[in-house]
Amino acid sequence: MSSISEPPADDIEHTPWDDLTAARRRVVLTIAHVHGPQTFNRPDLLDDVEEADDVEDVIDDKDRVLTSLDYTRLLNDLTEDGYLVKEFQGGTNPIMLDTEYDPGRDTRNAAPYGDTSALHTLVDQICDREGITRDLLDEVDNPYDFNEVKDEVNRAVGRVVLHPYSDPSKYRFTQEGYSVVSGKVKERKDADE
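^ that's the sequence the OP posted. Answer follows.
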């Protein structure tokens, strides 16, 4: 795992609110509404927003913000704008998990990205478990491409049995950034009443 050694100071300048793009304003308002000033995991943010039933109290279009949250770049832009701090850089040491691994039956529960032998062992055990032919890898263009293999196995089985995992990036508001955005959230909620 790697982390950011020294997170940026909270007293950094932030981009003026009116200079942010509409997408950035929409995302940062949503984050403040859903998570407040606490640290959040980047992949959890999308689920948290989907589950929130009152997001449109502070933004105009929940579907647009959900689309925006598919892109990590927007959170990184908000970091550069001085509204967020990335506390931990995720994505290191990714693995492919067998979601139905059973230690009494299977030999591996995961394969580190890059270890195709381990990946192919996962594929073999899934094929044996599901009673499907092991020549499944003949169906992919590149049997060394973890994502292509995952997609083919999950398609053949009809559910997610191979799933990628890596430690998530973690973000939080800067103090000044949260002060600005929480005020905007309050204004929007008050105007909605």
